[in-house]
Amino acid sequence: MILLQICGFILLAASGLAVDCPEGYLPHDNACYAFIMHTATWAEAREYCLTLKSHLARIETAKEQNYILGQTSRLGGDFWIAGFDYLEEGTWYWDGLTPIGQTWWYSGQPGGGVSNNCLALMGRYSHAWFATPCYNYYHFVCERTAGLEG
Ligand SMILES: [Ca+2]
Ligand SMILES: [Ca+2]
After folding, report:
1. Burial class (CB in 10 A: 0-12, 13-18, 19+), 150
2. How many A from CA of 120 to the centre of ligand 2?
3. Which of 12, 13, 35, 48 could serve as a FRET partner for 127 with CA atoms 20 to 30 Å apart?
4. All domains of the chain, ordered by start, with CATH?
């Protein structure tokens, strides 16, 4: 009986580990997110996420948008995510060159032409998507797939 209980505990622990995220990440829907509260330029934020074996967050579904919106609203401030249009003005990609599908731009965005080439969630506009100068200093969101090692 004791043995069975021990086995049950180990199985439970092992199945828990499969969906776990590394320390400092929050789990959501098979992904892990780190909301980094120090500030950096978009390029610095991108590098920082890579050193954490993750990437700047790519918002691909309404569910993911709602989740990130909830967290950024709770934390406050402005956050970089992975979007940019500095390769071709007006054509927005996620870092990694994935095309951006559904968008949640603030009314009138993206604007600013070649001056505003990086995508931020702006706190004073309810964290809607904004095209902003890539050299601004914002918090940022890193994302990685859940269950990856390292
Ligand atoms: Ca994503
Ligand atoms: Ca632009």
Report:
1. exposed
2. 12
3. 48
4. 2-145 (3.10.100.10)
